Structure formats: structure tokens, C-alpha cells
Amino acid sequence: MNKAAVIQKILAAESAAPLELGAAYAPANIALCKYWGKRDIELNLPVTGSLSVSLGDMGTHTQISISDRDSLILDGTPMPADHKINARLFSFLDHFRTAANLYFAVESNSTVPIGAGLASSASGFAATVLALKELFQWELSNEKLSVLARMGSGSASRSVYNGFVEWHAGVEDDGLDSVAESLNIQWPEFRIAVLTVSDAPKKIGSTEAMNRTVGESVLYESWPKKTAHDLPIIRQALYDKDISALGAQAESNALSMHATMLGCIPPVCYFEPETIDALQKIWALRKDGVEVYATMDAGPNVKLIFESAAQEDILDVFPELKIINPHK
Amino acid sequence: MNKAAVIQKILAAESAAPLELGAAYAPANIALCKYWGKRDIELNLPVTGSLSVSLGDMGTHTQISISDRDSLILDGTPMPADHKINARLFSFLDHFRTAANLYFAVESNSTVPIGAGLASSASGFAATVLALKELFQWELSNEKLSVLARMGSGSASRSVYNGFVEWHAGVEDDGLDSVAESLNIQWPEFRIAVLTVSDAPKKIGSTEAMNRTVGESVLYESWPKKTAHDLPIIRQALYDKDISALGAQAESNALSMHATMLGCIPPVCYFEPETIDALQKIWALRKDGVEVYATMDAGPNVKLIFESAAQEDILDVFPELKIINPHK
């Protein structure tokens, strides 16, 4: 099924008359059980479910106003019309033009530290959809908004919520059941931190790495089973606020995702020497009784998972750490 | 089936009267398609077939003589009776005592550079079996000798031959069809080299890593399929003397083996920062047109696969490399 048809289904009952301006904020998110592999590339339908934590006030503020031409200002900088970010954003916005000469002026500001290795497409597309909701005064559920955001960027489906979020894989061809929902869990002591080991541009983008892994890596065949095993354990650990169970399973899930990439030919390896050094330090801390666990996304940086009580011991080893309280 | 019964089957027609002394040499070997996971732990029967290259004059010289007590001299040093190497060797030799008061004095000398990260159990047990053949004047085929060596250490089955060797997984309970055979391939330009990135003792032994991976890692479920895919490609590349095809597949096979370990809980990670640095240099050389590929065993060191013509370019980047010509 194509994207335009799905979006038409969702918006069928909505008014086509926009206000002048819609503005919204969406947080970035980090997956504790990873989204890795698509069953439908056009609709960004995932092979498996996934589970994330939204990053509170680290995310993207976006406002969209009706204009006589498309334009994007990103973090204060007007982007050239032929920039690939423009192409991706406006081909998504094409689906929301309710009149022939309707154009969008988009202004977007990120509160994610530059080079923190936090995906900006998730908060970016979620904020875009939430701003469109304001602009067109849609009366859509959060689940429907997560479906729209997902068609911009898969993990954006999870960024329409705060806190802990589960994105269900779904089974339908149109993906209307591939929705994210809030788990409604409060865990004030939970922390996640970003250790930037490299802010050099990635040698291979995460979408390419994902699609190559699905196509080339024999090990990917185990991934659906790995996620089916990990996801309920991770969800339950969140309900139980059990950092040991959560951390062990989330770490295994993340490293297994990287493992599937090593099976590509040639291998896709996001590990840098500094990545291994950081992982070894985390494992050494654990041996010393400090409950801290690693997760990683499609890049060399390491994210640390822990509770606030462990913060001081961890900062001793990683003084440069950016610590995030998702419930702040 | 137990080890004693299988050994009895093999030796049924052999004489029990030993000479005074038997001596033999067996090379170490490096797998190009890895042995990873046992279907029978007592008999060292593998889940999959594997394929290796023997390392010419790098290996183990062993002589065994009849004595009034068991003793082992390893590289000139008499080993204490309670050392774990003695325990492992003499519990294996228990199966070959043809009289009540028959003991073995074993002297073993390795020509493998210390700290090169080359498994000594493969050449050690192969040389032991070949020395027993001389001692007892067995009239056994090489295949049968590979079965005996395999019951000492899995990969020893491949060390009873020089050159390129395939070890068939077999399907029988007694493992008499789990034999190694020489592929009879001459490839004089083929080189393998060892880059020692760490000679610190391993944090986890390879047998424990293997057994934990089989038991804990969901990703291991893909390993038999990965090997079924890789092994015929690697074998054909050897027949074709096609370094590109061989290298790409052997590298993918080795990294996929490490990938399966990352799925353990907690992860088993033999990568050191220096391992990643070496892999990145190999991949950079390849980008520059130098045909060099990596393989790794259950440890942090990296082995390089190439043809002699590439040797100079590779030494420019890795001056400390120990280069082995297996056909020398």
C-alpha cells in the first residue's frame, strides 16, 4: 500500500482549512529494545516491535506556517532548497498540501547537544506531525499521530510521547496497527547518558546499515526471535523498575543489533577503538558493583543506563558524560 | 556414546605392544571457516563443518616414551603433576594405556611464537596422537587419526594434515564420520599473518565462550545456516585461488562468530580497542586496492589473509606482522 493512500485514510474526516501557524515540540528518544529492519520500506513498517525512552527536554521545536513557497530554517540557518534535508522534509509534507498552491515555511530548532549522536530525525518528524496537527486542527489520537510520524521516520513514531514508549510492529499491510503507545510508567530515578566517542560523520548511514543488514547478513534471521525474547523482559523490567534486568537485556539487545551488522559483506562495524574502551569501562564498573549498562544505536557512541544513585561513581570514570533525566 | 567406546572401536584391530618411543610433529592451524559450537561435548562433535590452513613449520614436536610414571615436559619445563595441562593430557592418554602399569613420559616443544595467539591445543593433541601412532605402530588412516585427535581437542582434527583441510561435521552419534581430510590444494602465494594486539591472558577461555554462546545467544541459532552458506564458497575460492572471494567470506565468517558471542548475557566481547584499530587499518588498505582480509579466533588478535604480492604494502602499515607461508 502506498503512503498517500494510508495518509488519506487517516485524514479522511479532517478539515482541510489550515490556521496560519502550528507549533509543537517533540523529544528525541533512545531505544531500549531496538527498531532494526523494515518489513515495508515505503511505510517504514518494522519487522519487530521496539521500546524506547523519550529524552524530556532534549528534542525539536518546530513551527509550520502557510506560505507562498516551501522553506526550511534549521537551527537559525536557512537551508538551500536542494539540500537533502529539504528534499526529505518536503516530500513528506507533499502528502499534507490541502490546496494546489499551498506551501509550508518550516522553522525548526533542536535542543539536542550537537554531536551527541542522538537521532534528530525522530524528534524532527514527530515535531513536524504535531505542528501539522496544530496547523490543521486535526482531531487525531496520539496513536494516529504516531502512524503519521512513522511514515516520516520509523523511530519518530515513538517521539510523539514522553517517557517510556512501545511501538508495536503490527501485521497489517497499511500499517494502521503499527502504532506507538505510552507505557505510562513513572521512574524518577531512571537516567540515561550519552558518551560521545566520535562526532565524525558516519561512514555509513543508519538506514543503509539497516537495509544492508536485512539483505546481506545471515545473522539477521535471528533478530526477530531475539527481539521477541527481549522485548517482554525489557517491558516487565520497566514496570518493575528493575535496573539490573532492564540493563542486562537492553545491553544484550543493542550489542546483538551491532552483531547482525558484522555479518554483512563487507562487515558494517560502528565500533571505534574508543567504543570498546568505553564498553570495557562500563563492564569494569559493573564488576565493582556499580549498576550501569550500555546501549548503542547505529553509530560509535555509547549510551549509559543507570539509576540516579549510581551517578557519582559513573562520573568518576566518565567525567564528560551528558546525563539526561527523561522525567524532568 | 562415550569416548572410551569410540576409541576401542578405532583401535580394535591394532596391536597393544608399544615400542619404547614415538615422536611426531603437527602444525598449528587457523580456521578460514570457523568451528564454533559442539553437538556433543564429550566427543567434541561440532555443530558445523569447518575449514582451515595448517601453519607449516609452526606447530608442536612431541615425543612419548613408555615410563614408570606419567610426566610432561613442556618447552623444556617439567610441569607440576597437578597442572591443568597435565590433567587434560593424561586423562586423554588414559584411553591409550594398553597395560595396567603403563605410563607415559611426554616431551613437547612448540615452534609457535609465544603470545602469537595461536591455539596450541590443536597442534598439541594432533602431535600427541601422531606420536602414539609411532609408539604403538598403529596402521590407521589419516581420517581415523583425525578422529582420535578431535577427541583431545576439536580443532586438533585438522592439525593432522598440512595445507588446506576440511573437517566434516558428520551426523553419527559415535562421530566416526566427523573426520578431517586434506583438500590437496597447492597455493604457493597464499599467506597468513598474525598481528598480536594483546598477549594478556584471556578473560574467558574459548571453550567457555563457545559453550556460553551456544547456550545463551539467540544469534547462535543463525550460525549453522551462516556456515552452510560460507563453507562451500570458501572451499571453492581455495580451489580457484581467488583471494577476493576467499578473504571476503572468511572475514565475514570470523566476524559473525564474534557477533554470536555479543549476544551472550552479559556479552562476550574479545574485541580490544587495538583489535578495532587493526580491523580499520585492514579495511583502509582494501579501500586503497590492497587485497588483505581479516580473520579472528576466540581472542583479541587479528590474523591477516593475503597473497605474497601484497606483502610489502601490508608491512608498511603493520611492520610488526609475523607472516607465515603455510607451504614452506
Classified by CATH, the class of the largest domain in chain A is Alpha Beta
| Largest two-chain interface | A-B, 35 and 35 residues
For the largest beta-sheet of chain A, the strand count, sense and barrel status come to: 7 strands, mixed
Q: Spans of chain A with pLDDT under 50 lasting ≥5 residues? A: none
What best-fitting shape of chain A do the alpha-carbon axes yield? globular
**What proportion of the residues of chain A is helical, as a percent range?**
25-40%
Number of H- or I-type helical stretches of chain A: 9
What gap, in angstroms, lies between the N and C termini of chain A?
40 Å
The residue-averaged pLDDT of chain A reads 94
User: Strand percentage of chain A, roughly?
Assistant: 15-25%
**Strand-pairing-aware structural class of chain A:** alpha+beta
Number of strands of chain A: 13
Write up what this structure looks like.
Two copies of one chain form a homodimer. Chain A is α+β, with helices and mostly antiparallel strands and 328 residues long. Chain A folds into two domains: 180 residues, Ribosomal Protein S5, domain 2; 135 residues, Alpha-Beta Plaits, CATH 3.30.70.890. Chain A is built from nine helices and 13 strands. In chain A, the strands form three sheets. In chain A, strands 1, 4, 5, 6, 7, 8 and 9 form a seven-stranded mixed β-sheet that branches. Chain A has a four-stranded antiparallel β-sheet with strand order 11-12-10-13. The model of chain A has no long low-confidence stretch (mean pLDDT 94).
